[in-house]
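Researcher: I'm preparing a figure for a lab meeting and need a structural model of a single chain. I don't have an experimental structure, so a prediction will have to do for now. The sequence is pasted below. Please return the structure as tokens so I can convert it later.
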Amino acid sequence: MAASGRTSAAFAAVTSHLGVGAKVLDRQESELVEQALAAVASRSLHDAEILRNLVEELKATSALLDRQRPLRVPTSLGGEHRDETTLVDHLCTIDGLSGDLALPLKATLSRTYLLTKINFLRGFVKATSVILDVPGCPRMNHDLREELAQSVYTLLAEELFLALLRKPNVSIRTKRRCADQLITVWDDAALEIDDFAPLLESAWHARNRITSAYGTLLGATETFRLVTEDCSTEVIDFFGRDNMSVDESSAFEEFLFNMTSEELATLRREMQTQRLSAASPAWAAEVLGRQLDELEHSHEIDPMALYRSYQRRQLAADFRLMSNSPGPRRTAEAYLMVYLLDQQ
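Model: Understood. Here is the structure written out token by token.
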């Protein structure tokens, strides 16, 4: 009874710090976190205390962000007038080499808040993954992974917009729309990807739930699997249209197989050399000399694997542009986003 009392008291102490409000977590997230805290505290006060600290860090980061001036509000410094237009002009001229140093402080803090939230949710996923025997915990862990994925997708969307801003082959009109979208996201921490880029979310949501079969490396099986995971028909139609460029087609292949065009070319050459009619994930990993996320895929999604895939493909696209090497100069997501921005 005494132990039960200590557990209840400890849980009360933990949840008393959860009053994070709508600016930190929405209602669904708050309810999920409260349930997870209760389940974890019933098994491990140590883990519950770590989660409580994560709550405090998220609240502190949110409070710091709230104190910043909205980016669309005019101001001045050193006699220089600054407003929404001058910020858009500035964002359209960044080259990427200065990284976050070229961004306004609120933009950096907004990204820091999002990273803090991702770390926060990863902690809850980890803590609940070891108590799956508790009634309701498997579903809770699944829902936490979905919330984590949405935050990772939101971060990916920000990085995609920033990548487009530093591309010399993107029109100024598209860049201005891209910059305007970024300002909106940085000014409202409550925004998530489904609020401003639902088609991107659909593509990432579906890709995160399938594995690559490799096979003949044509991508037909992978495309079909995207459809079965409810990838938006607009995304499928965009990458299936008749007038697709070679680079767009190559970028979509990269997206389907979670690897660069150079890696796919290596696999195809090796298949010819070895006279193989089909490739397997294990064989591909051996040829490329790296672990493939398909080999680690479980019944639950891994949004970090999708993040790694995007970063690998984005780095390859940037390298090709700088070195004038053959291959797509943008990721598949970037080609799609430019198309969508140009339709606005």
